[in-house]
Amino acid sequence: MEADSKPKKSGARLCCVCNQNRAALKRPKTLEQVLSSTSPSVWECFYAVFEEEIHQVILENQLFKPGERIAIGASGGKDSTVLAYVLSELNRRHNYGLDLFLLSVDEGITGYRDDSLETVKRNELQYGLPLKIVSYKDLYGWTMDEIVKMIGLKNNCTFCGVFRRQALDRGAALLKVDKVATGHNADDIAETVLLNILRGDIASFNSEFINIRFSLWLMLGCQNLNKFSTYAYFKKLDYFSTECIYSPNAYRGFAREFIKDLERIRPRAILDIIKSGEDFRISTATKMPEQGTCERCGYISSQKWCKACVLLERLNRGLPKLGIGRNQGLNSDGKKDGKRDSRTPSTESKQCGSLEF
Predict the structure, then answer these.
(1) For the residues 346-354, what does the mean pLDDT come to?
(2) Compositional bias (Polar residues) at which positions (predicted)?
(3) Which fold is adopted by the domain 47-185+223-249?
(4) Model-level pTM?
(5) What span, in angstroms and rounded, lies between the C-alpha atoms of 330 and 2?
(6) Residues annotated in the binding site, as ranges?
(7) How high does pLDDT run on average in the chain?
(8) Does residue 134 register a pLDDT over 60?
(9) Do 247 and 210 touch, CB atoms closer than 8 A?
(10) DSSP letters along 96-161, please?
(11) Binding site for ATP: which residues?
């Protein structure tokens, strides 16, 4: 009996895709031992599963239509680089008929963003995708270096998150695209669910509210196969891996560490958190913010002024910290507004690993 059991145990460790090579990874979603052997030369099973899953997500959810213009948010990091590579490959392989563009935001962070943008420029040539770069300096008159010099390292991610989201939307408008694809993975989404709970931001769990706010956005996060790093590494993609110099103390970092601890105990923890976020129901008696437009810049907002205009007004007046927090904002009359803009909470940029719902 013992002799018969050993081959079965050995067989269970084979890749379930090719059934030949020894599996090195286990998928948290299905607990299948797949994705090829420990030898880099036989990672084709991993590539095939990774790319096919994204393809199926696109088909099942009808994410694209032939002839659409799609901007890929490109920071130069592994997630956005993988997204740009895979989407361009699938577009060619399956004839989606899409016009793809790279869209980057230059926050003005010396020694970080200037270096990562060089990576994006190389990706432009490698993948043959046109690149558009929008900068904080051109849009807002400030760089993140200048903002941090004024406010210090505390709360700087709030400014960056708000400005970055709007910069991507404005870049998308300049490119006249139909959707923006962002390289968010399962970790990012789970962290956001947890942060929304910690902040008491119930509006972010309202799916109808999400659909309104993201009318021009496409979240293509490949939530069920969070292996961007592995794919980028073994595919030898050209990406930038240095962490933002202003993000080490970001609030999101603590949520990330907590989720990683949970994942070590229970591999499916990340997927379970995402499922919890999807299943949240808001009481019908709860008053939700209504969609509107900023009276100053025309951007989406539930207040008279959007969060970006509030922050810019305080920066320009030399009082940046008064633009941060639940009860500190400006209405169109330039007075304090006690109501919090639920659509634009204190947020952190993708460089801090965030995903804004």
Answers:
(1) 43
(2) 344-357
(3) Rossmann fold (3.40.50)
(4) 0.77
(5) 75
(6) 73-75, 79, 105, 183, 188
(7) 76
(8) yes
(9) no
(10) ---EEEEEEEE---TTTHHHHHHHHHHHHHHHT--EEEEEHHHHHS--HHHHHHHH-STTHHHHHH
(11) 73-75, 79, 105, 183, 188
